[in-house]
Amino acid sequence: QVHVVESGGDVVQPGGSLRLSCAASGGTFFDKYIAWGRQAPGKELEWVAGISNDGSKTYYSESVEDRFFISRDDVKNTVYLQMNKVTAEDTARYYCGIGSRWQATRGQGTQVTVAS
Questions:
Q1: pLDDT tens-place string over residues 53-106
Q2: What angle do CA 43, 32, 103 make, to 5 degrees?
Q3: How many CB atoms lie within 10 A of CB 48?
Q4: Fewest CB within a 10 Å sphere: which of 18, 49, 50, 116?
Q5: Cα–Cα distance measured from residue 56 to residue 8, given in angstroms and rounded to the nearest whole number
Q6: What is the CA 88 to chain-centroid distance, rounded?
């Protein structure tokens, strides 16, 4: 069974950039839809971005569209989330997961804190 490991979280200043990674463990991401989601303190888990099984299509929530970009490298079995122009509202724990029920397959997440 494929597991995911998220990494790359950090403290970043408003307006800055950060790249998160989602690596496959125990298998591959080949031919699988991958999603990124996040959970801010006191809020529910929300989906923010997804990438199709072949990488030809990407999807974003309105809150991150045109600022965040999802990509995949199937050779490295890794999916990335490039975060640009971050704001305090982007502070959250970020998770990735596999398939339409990505919430059930997410890992332990990686913390992103936006602060000056």
A1: 999 999 999 999 999 999 999 999 999 999 999 999 999 999 999 999 999 999
A2: 20
A3: 23
A4: 116
A5: 24
A6: 17
